[in-house]
Amino acid sequence: MKQRLFLLFLVLIAPLTAAPAPEREKARPSAHLAAIGLPDWARGSTIYEVNVRQFSASGKFSSVTADLPRLKALGVDILWLMPIHPIGELNRKGPLGSYYAAKDYLAVNPEFGSEQDLRDLVNAAHAQGQRVILDWVPNHVSPDNPLTKTQPEFFWRDEQGRLTPPHGTDWTDVVQFNFDAPGLLDYQANVLLYWVKNFGIDGFRCDVAWGLPTPFWNEVVKRVRAVKPDALFLAEAELPQQQVAAFNLSYGFDLHHAMNQIAQGKKSASALDEAYAKIRAHFPHGGALMVFTSSHDENSWAGTEFERMGAGYAPFAALTFLLDGVPMIYNGQEAGLDRRLEFFTRDPIVWPKETHPATKLYQVMTALRRANPALHTGAPMRRLDTTDNATFYAIERSAGGRQVVGFFNLTAKDAKADLFDPALAGTWRDAFTGEAVTLEALVPLDLKAWRYRVLVK
Fold it and tell me: What are the backbone dihedrals phi and psi of residue 100, each rounded to the nearest 5 degrees, phi first?
């Protein structure tokens, strides 16, 4: 009898002592709802991700500031700075650690310079019409972050009461927040407001956005927008429900993976349509995705675009500007960066003295996107049928009486096909050469491997 009572006691207290791992929020179709949408200033913009540590030989904010005129000439409007906070030392990975293991949310990493150096960078960017967003890591912090001592209730713990990394990861240099903890939402909202009010930050790229509950996001973002109504929030996630009240923009992971698979010959060009069908079926009306061929994660862990896409890097780079969304360039792509950057130590980009073909590609496409409403986020987009949809991707965008059309051979073989569309008849201008091009309703396509054309009308 005593043994039975003891077992019953264990059953009764088990729920109080056990700490089940937090579950990742699942995607909820939200196509019946309206998205919060992009701020008007971002609809024709291009994002540029800055890895401050590797951007220059100095690894300082001041070097980014000095290079702003070049970035302006490249045509980028939004500078996304990877995390700028001091990095934890306990369980640090590599000699310098991961940017995503923040030791202090309210400080600047001295590796990059001073607070004034950051202010100078933001002010200089604003002076030439650019916006600056910070990479924010709300899901976890380094285990030596003072919050683990001053606010121990903020953190998730295992059955033995120990701080732990995010469940299911090898992120041993960070510990997981518990988003049910009282006061955590207030704290995190105030962190974002600190950077907005004191440094003029224009928004945030939110790391592991899928790890936080949507209601938590909705309230945090609401508080920031009460102070800065046009703040931009980019989610490292592809959860439709997050764009109903919080995020302006989500990662286009499915599109990115489709581009890699097409480039590797594993899928046909129509894989892009399948990705957009999923977007239309699930995302709220007016939602938007960031479209990219590389990023800090892709470059360091999955490989450069040259490794993943080979000679297809160029058509896919151009296509990120024609597909509906917001295009993003990772630093160095405009100079043909062809190596993986180290993540936990210094490994500066060596900027070539000669102009790489990718430079002109991005300059042409950023200028076209900014000036032409047909390429603004949300403008109508059509895939045009050809007699070889597996090989060719033909796309038309239109808005405000303007049209842009692109013809892409997304294979490693020369190919021919026909396309019929009366809307294409007329005189166009080649976006890259400036030459006049006359099209009939029946358009014969004849493109060598990985070649493409972008025409403006």
Answer: -90, 15
Is the model's pLDDT at 6 over the cut of 90?
Answer: no
pLDDT of residue 170: 95
Number of domains in the chain: 2
Query: Domain limits at 274?
Result: 26-378
Q: Say if residue 164 is in the same domain as residue 141.
A: yes
pTM to 2 decimal places: 0.95
CA 62 to chain centre: 24
Residue 67 token pair: 């290079």
Question: What integer pLDDT is reported at residue 22 of this predicted model?
Answer: 63
**Does residue 289 have a pLDDT over 70?**
yes
Q: Are 104 and 187 in contact (CB under 8 A)?
A: no
Query: What are the start-end ranges of the E strands in 400-448?
Result: 402-409, 415-420, 426-430, 436-439, 442-447
Instruction: State how far the Cα of 346 lies from the Cα of 241, in Å rounded to an integer.
Output: 38
Q: In angstroms, how far is the first alpha carbon of the chain from the final one?
A: 87
> Are residue 286 and residue 433 in the same domain, yes or no?
no
Phi, psi of 373 (to 5 degrees): -60, -20
145/163 Cα distance (integer angstroms) = 12
Q: Give the pLDDT confidence of 221-254 residue by residue, as tens digits.
A: 999 999 999 999 999 999 999 999 999 999 999 9
Contact (Cβ atoms closer than 8 angstroms) between residue 48 and residue 328 = yes
Angle ∠(17,18,22) on CA atoms, nearest 5: 135
C-alpha closest to that of 211 among 231, 188, 235:
235
Per the DSSP assignment, residues forming a β-bridge with 204 are 134, 233
